[in-house]
Structure formats: structure tokens, C-alpha cells
Amino acid sequence: MTEPLIAPEVYAELAETMGADFAAELVATFLSDAPNMIADLKAAAAGGDADGYRRAAHSIKSNADTFGAPALAAQARAMELGGLPEGDPPLPALEATYAETAVALKALADA
Amino acid sequence: MRDAKGEILIVDDNKVNRLLMARSVEILGHRASVAENGQIAMSMLVDGTFDILLLDIEMPEMDGFEVLEALKSNAALRDLPVIVTSSVEGLGNIVRCIELGAEDYIPKPVNKILLKARLESCLEKKRLHDEQKRLLKRFATDEVARDLQESGFAIGGHRVSATVLFCDIRDFTAMSEHMAPEATIELLNTYYALMFEAVTSNGGMVNLIVGDGLMALFGAPEPIENSAQSAVNAAAEMCAMIEMLNEERAMLNDPALEVGFGIATGEVVTGYAGTDARATYTCIGKTVNLASRLEAHTKVAQESILMDSATQRRLPVEIRSKEIPAIHFKGFSEDQTIFALEPVTSID
Question: Which chain B positions have a beta carbon within 8 Å of A81's beta carbon?
């Protein structure tokens, strides 16, 4: 993975323009909402729902960009653009990146 | 920015994006409402008053493209400025938004300075547009205002079948010489109020006022079932109202108003004529000339309402008229058969 896990300047700017408390709340919202988005992605992949798959990947990408999580954003973007693959979608890789990102974001929010 | 606080509706299916956008908009001093998808947004738009829509594209139920399409086909919401905020991939999608009427596109994550500038520019545009709409309503008739809003402003013409009505206060110039200027304007305003009411309540539109003269059009820009009958009804109503006005004037020892009407039916050319900066909805053609000549002839013929044969033919039998001697009007190759409406003493 060439993209860094976290681009700290993005979160710093978010905290500066929106307020540190609000930025931390937003991270908490993301961390509680992201498992739903990943579940949507899995369900769409299992059900062959290309639109749902693209939409869920798009949502994850959009939020990852907001907080400055380039690695997660890049993986989600590749899924959004690539569409539902013939074989198994790269879900485990995405979940692993998300788990690492979540820890890093939580640390930033708690700082 | 002046005292402009906008009501902004944010549509996004993603919770983080909704919270972030709402907060960004509030920090800029506007009020924010949120909707989770296009369908919810549409019902909120119909119920509420919003200045700007901040629209996401990728959404379940009803996506951003569908919202743009729905807005475009809704006369009441067509002018609502939409700023698309999305991280949707591909230039084609952005172009599609603009083609569907979006005012602007801001990529996500939304840059706060860009958002501020776009919101302010949209609010200013909306204010100007609302002001224009108000002016249009004031200086043009409802029909023309609607026609302009629906079809856009285009100088051009149509050939339609319509009925033209001219009316004029006889010897008004001589009469007004003995009146105070304020009294003249007040009398004209009373007269116009009555005339406008009679014309519009019969489905016509007043499209020209010059001094004490007035031209009304029936059957354009919107067609009506029997334009001839509507015009004659309007004239008869106007006569009855002028009679009532004259009774009041008699009590004040003011001279009676005498009004003449000329009505002709046939093909006219209608459209917006002028320049881009100043144009009016107008109507020209032989039918217009004939109505004007008939109106002028009322004084000679000692009749209140004169009409051409095309108008008379279209009247139901209960509206009675009599043929008076034909006249050769200037500018017409043939003698014109003329009918006078039998005096109407009362209206329902």
C-alpha cells in the first residue's frame, strides 16, 4: 500500500475550522457508522447489487477523505470505480485498513 | 455580505457528511436543514421555503440526478439554486449535473472558503431573481409572467387566432382639461381597476395602456374556449360598471364617462417585441387594426360596443346584436360588416 494510513494535516485543518470538539464528535459518528457501511458493502457484494456496492464504497471513500485517511480512501475508491468484481471483492483488505484507520483516528480525536 | 442569512437544505445519505455540511453552513451564519435522500428532500422542499439546496449525488431511493430532474419539471421549484456537493467520480457526472440545471459543483471534502463564496453568490442570484419575478408580476400580466417563466424570454412570434378589444374614454382629453391633475389620475385609476377586473375575470389580458385607451387580448398567450364571447362579455361588464360609476359621478355633479369598445376576431401575430433590454408582449395584425377602427367608429355610430362579423358569428344566440351600415375603413380593401351589441342594462 503506497498511500499513508493517515494524513494528519487534514484532521488538523478539520479541527481548526470546525472546532476540536466537533471534529472529535464527527470521528465518533464515523466510527459508529462505518461498520454499517462495511456491512452494506458486504451485503451488496453477496447479493450482486452493483449499485449498492458502488454507493457503499463511495461513502467510505468520501468519509476517509474528510478525515484524512488516504489508504482507506484509495481502497474504497478502487472498489467504487472497479465495480462489483467477478470473484471475491477485496473486503478483508478493506476491513483490515479500516481497523488500523479507526485506531489512528481515535488517537487523533482523543489528543 | 449584507444581512443575508439563507435557509439551506442539505441532502446527503451519509451521516458524517450531513453533520459536517450542516455545521459548515451554520458557521457561515445560515440555517441548515438536512434530508437523508432525494425523496425526503423533495417533500421538504414542497412543504418549506429554502433558498439553496446542497445536493449529494450518490444516494439510495432517489439520487441527486433524479432530484435535479424532478426540480426541473416542477414550476414552483425550478428556480431553486442547487449546488452539487459530491465526491462522485468522473467529469461526465459533473457535466450531467450542470446540464440538469445545477448552479455549481463543489467537490468533497468541501473547501470552506469555496462553500462560503458559492453560497453567497447563490443567495445574491436568488435575491435578484426573486426581485425580477416581483417586478415582472407588477409590470406584466400574470399570463405573460407565467408564459415568460415557462418558456423563457425569446423574442419571436406566433400566429394565433384571438379576439382583440380596444376601449377608450371619449373626449377624455377635453374633460381632463377642467380637472386637477390628481383627479385625472384618480379617475384613470378607477377606470383601469374596473377594466382590468372585467378583462381578467373573462380570461383576457390587458396588454397595452396608453393614456385613457386600453387594448386587451383574449385567446393569447393562452387559448380560451370562445375568445369572441369572452371579449364581448368583458365589454358588456365594463359598460355596466361604467354606468354604476356614472351614477356616483352624477351625485357629485361630475360629467358622465362615455366609453367606446371595438372588438375584432381573427389571426394575430403575438410575441415579445423589442430589444433584449426592453421588450413587451405585443400583438399585431389586421385584426388589431380592425378592432382599433371599430372603437374609433363607436362615436360616429353612437354605439358603445361594435364588433366585426367574425366576432358576431361566434356569439351564442342569447347575446343579441344588430347589424349597422358597413364601413370602408382606411387600410382595408373591403367594406366591413359591423355589428353593435344590443344595449345591456344589467349584468348578473
Answer: 89
Residues from chain A that touch B20, judged by Cβ atoms under 8 A, are: 18, 26, 66
The single residue listed with the C-alpha cell 342594462 is: B345
Element (H, E) at B255: none
Q: Quick one: B79 and B158 in the same domain?
A: no
Are B122 and B158 in a shared domain?
Answer: no
Strand intervals (E) in B176-258: 204-210, 213-218
Q: DSSP of B77-111, one letter per residue?
A: TTT--EEEEE----HHHHHHHHHTT-SEEEESSPP
Least Cα separation, residue A70 to chain B (angstroms) = 13
**Mind listing the pLDDT tens digit for each residue in A46-97?**
999 999 999 999 999 999 999 999 999 999 999 999 988 888 888 999 999 9
Domains and CATH numbers, chain A: 8-110 (1.20.120)
The domain in which residue B327 lies consists of: 152-341
Domain tally, chain B: 2
Residue with cell 393562452: B222
To test the contact with chain A by mutation, choose from B16, B20, B66 the residue with the greatest count of A C-beta atoms within 10 A, namely B16
Spell out which residues of chain B touch residue A55, defining contact as CB-CB under 8 Å: 13, 58-60
Mean per-residue pLDDT pooled into runs of 10, chain B (348 residues): 76 95 94 95 92 93 93 88 86 84 87 89 84 66 65 65 92 81 83 85 85 86 89 92 86 87 92 64 84 92 94 91 90 90 61
Residues B102 and B202 in one domain: no
